[in-house]
Amino acid sequence: MTTPRELDGSSAGGQFLRTALALSVLETEPVRLANVRGDRSTPGLRHQHLAVLETMADLCDAEVSGAELGSETVVFEPGLEPADSERGREHLAGGSYAVDIGTAGSVTLLCNALLPLATVLESPLSVTVSGGTDVAWSPPLDYLRYVKLPLVRRFGIQAACEVDRRGFYPDGGGTVTLRLAPSSLERIDLLERGSIEGLRLYSTESESLADRDVAYRQAEGALERLDEVSELEVTERCERTVASPSPGSALVLCVDHGTGIAGFSALGERGKPAERVGEDAADAANRFLEGTAPVDRHMGDQLLAFLAIAGGKVRVPSVTEHVETRCELLEAFGVDVGLERDRETAVVSVTSPLSVRE
Q1: Which of these three, 290, 312, 329, is where a domain ends?
Q2: Active-site position among 49, 91, 257, 322
Q3: Is the Cβ–Cβ distance between 250 and 221 less than 8 Å?
Q4: What is the pLDDT of residues 91-144, one digit of tens each?
Q5: Which of 139, 205, 212, 244 is deepest in the core (most CB within 10 A)?
Q6: 351 and 335 in a common domain
Q7: Residue 85's pLDDT band (boundaries 50, 70, 90)?
Q8: Does the annotation count 257 as an active-site position?
Q9: Which residues form the RNA 3'-terminal phosphate cyclase domain (predicted)?
Q10: 191 in a domain, yes or no?
């Protein structure tokens, strides 16, 4: 076994693990992650993190140690040969896989971890995931469908998401299929926000909440709060009632502009009025509209793995903890990351991406 790259997750959460595993596959380089999720109250692997680890291992026939609940040290060695010069970076076989997280663990976080692998696929990949589609501490499903995927497709990632059933906390039970095709990622340059083109709104309620008009009330709360600050043309308004083992609701707002998409979301909570759910998402959208960044604060860190692959520059609304830890992780893999802050925003840049290395 090649000596693994040593990585320390003592000041990071699950995103550090997911990005590290993706980079390990992309670079066909073994890694040893110590202090996994070290800054969380319950460190170590939880169900959703274990599902990501096992899925990555299945995709690249990796040798793994520490693949168990609660483990704080993981060693991951991809079972792939580095690509030769004629085949470029394509070296990962596709196929069809099924993953059951087993709880309401986040389906969208697992999908996010897999997206960069499209750049090294030899054939299409289909992964059907069961778990929580709209749960706390992760992007709601409609953020993945209507913000993340359309944005990365602009730069060459061929990806689609099919939804069979939604899953809210605590039972989960949602099922989603992520489909990836071999992709060539273009350099990502998102420095300026284009002119605002309109607003799309997606409000979802479980069947058990339909008699309370939760989806409608969420949408109304969002639009009323937005109207107080700005006049946005609503180009799409979608209210859905869906089957789910658990009661729940979610709202996602998408702001389309000339150079990209920004997304803002909120989840229903027991005892929280549906109108307030909409207002929370609208408040985040209003803060974005007052600034100049082309992406929302969550997308800022999610794009860093793609910057590492293809290079480019992205202006982010703020340097969040996730931005900082992902920059540190990319640097640990030898990626030269620049971070320039100004009064209101910051620019993250990669000038020597993984795709051009000898």
Answers
A1: 290
A2: 322
A3: no
A4: 899 999 999 998 899 999 999 999 999 999 999 999 999 999 999 999 999 999
A5: 205
A6: yes
A7: very low
A8: no
A9: 12-333
A10: no
pLDDT in tens, 154-200: 999 999 999 999 999 999 999 999 999 999 999 999 999 999 999 99
Structural domains counted in the chain? 4
How confident is the model at residue 358, as a pLDDT? 41
The pLDDT of residue 83 is 56
Structure tokens at 246: 């658990």
Rounded to whole angstroms, the Cα distance separating 177 from 345 reads 35
Co-location of 320 and 358 in the same domain = yes
Q: Which stretches of 43-171 are DSSP H helices?
A: 47-60, 107-114, 141-143, 149-154
Task: Encode pLDDT of 325-339 as tens digits.
Answer: 999 999 999 999 999
Annotated binding residue at 91? no
158 is in an annotated binding site: no
277 within domain boundaries: yes
Is 1 annotated among the ligand-binding residues?
no
Q: Are 234 and 253 contacting, i.e. CB atoms less than 8 angstroms apart?
A: no
257 annotated as a binding-site residue: no
Residues 225 and 268 in one domain: yes
Which domain range does residue 263 map to?
196-290
Q: What is the pLDDT of residues 340-358, one digit of tens each?
A: 998 889 999 999 898 654 4
Half-sphere exposure of 178 (CA within 13 A, CB side): 30
Q: Provide the whole-model pTM.
A: 0.95
- How far from 81 is each of 64, 90, 310, CA to CA, in Å? 17, 11, 21
Please indicate, yes or no, whether residues 96 and 174 belong to a single structural domain of this protein: yes
Same domain, 87 and 182: yes
Distance between CA atoms of 239 and 219, rounded to whole angstroms? 8
- Helix (H, G, I), strand (E, B), or coil: what is residue 204? strand
CATH code for the domain of 169: 3.65.10.20
Is 48 annotated in a binding site? The answer is no
> Using an 8 Å Cβ cutoff, are 313 and 348 in contact?
yes
